Amino acid sequence: MRHKPSVALIGAGAMGGALLRGWLAGDVIAPSRSAVFDPAIDGEMKTLCASHGVAHNPPLDDVYKAGIDAVVIAVKPQMANEVLGQFAGLASQAIVISVMAGKTIAGISAALGGARKIARTMPNLPAAIGKGVSGLYAAEAVDDAGRDLVEVLMRAAGETVWVSAEADIDFVTAISGSGPAYYFLLTEALAEAGEALGLSKETAAKLARATFTGAGALMETEARSPAHIRRAVTSPGGTTEAALNILDGDAKALGRLVNEAVRAAAARARDLSD
Fold first, then answer.
1. Would you call 145 helix, strand, or coil by DSSP?
2. I need a surface site. Which of 22, 55, 197, 256 has the fewest CB within 10 A?
C-alpha cells in the first residue's frame, strides 16, 4: 500500500486490543487518522490510544468527514445487531473487516444498512501475541486493493490464509480457531500421564508445556513437513515408536479421532452462523 491506512476499530476487547497493539507496534496504520470505539474501553487501551494519538470514542461525524479506509469490527457477535447500525455511514465509505465468529457477510451487511465491501476473518487465540493465523474471505465487492488492506491489517495478528468460499470460514474455525484448545488438551493429557508415572505435578507440567512449545518453535523453523520431522525422530523399535503405535498405529486412532472432532467443530460453527 502507498499510504498507511486509517482505521475505525469497533470494540477494543481481547482481540480488538491485540490488533490495535499490533498495528501500532508495527507502524501499520495512521494513528492520527484512526479511532477506537468502545464505551467500556479500559485504562490500558485509553493510555495506548493517547500515547499514539489515536482518538477514542470521538464524534462519528468527525470521523466520517475525515474519511476512513477500514472499519474493523471486533465486538461480540451477539452485540452486532444492537451496535453496528450507528456505524453504517462509516461502513459506506470503507472496507469492513469482521473478526466476529458466526456472523455472515449477509448478516453484517444488514446490520450496517447494506454495506457491500465486507471481509470476514477468523483469527485464533495466539493472535493476542502476534503468533496467530487468520483465515480470510472477502465478498465479491472487495477489489484487489481492498484484499491487500485486509491482509496488511490482519498480518499484525500473525499469518494469513485466504479461503475461496465463505462457508470455508467454518472449516478455518474448526482447524485453527478452535485448534489451540486441542493442543492445550494434549498438553494436559501428557502432564497427567507424567504424573501417573510418578513425576511430581510441577515437573510433569513443566516437561509437557516446554515440549509442546519447543516442538512448535522447531516446526516453525523447519522446511520439512510435520510428517517428515516425526519420522526423523522415530527410531525403529525405540521409545517414540512404541508410543506412536498406541496413539496412531495401524488403526489410525488419533487421526480418526481428530477428524471426527474437527467435523463436529465445523458442524457447530455452521449451526451458530446467522
1. helix
2. 197
Identify whether the C-beta of residue 154 lies closer than 8 Å to the C-beta of residue 97. yes
Write phi, then psi, for 255 (nearest 5 degrees).
Answer: -60, -45
- pLDDT, tens digit, 9 for 90 and up, residues 55-80: 999 999 999 999 999 999 999 988 99
Cα 11 from Cα 41, distance rounded (Å): 8
Question: What secondary structure does DSSP assign to 237-268, as a single string?
Answer: TSHHHHHHHHHHSTT-HHHHHHHHHHHHHHHH
Burial 117-139 (b: 16+ CB within 10 A, else e): bbbbbbbbbbbbebebbbbbbbb
Q: What is the set of domains in the chain, with CATH numbers? A: 7-172 (3.40.50.720), 179-272 (1.10.3730.10)
**3-state SS record for 68-132:** CCEEEECCCHHHHHHHHHHHHHHHHHCEEEECCCCCCHHHHHHHCCCCCCEEEEECCHHHHHCCE
Report the first-to-last Cα separation within the chain, whole angstroms.
33
* Cell numbers for 199: 513425576
pLDDT in tens, 40-53: 999 999 999 999 99
Helix/strand/coil for 37: strand
Measured CA to CA, the distance from residue 75 to residue 13 in angstroms comes to 8
Q: 184-204: buried (b, 16+ CB within 10 Å) or exposed (e) per residue?
A: eeebeebbeebbeeebeeeeb
As a whole number of angstroms, the distance between CA 211 and CA 203 comes to: 12
Sign of the four-CA dihedral 76, 153, 115, 10:
positive
pTM: 0.90
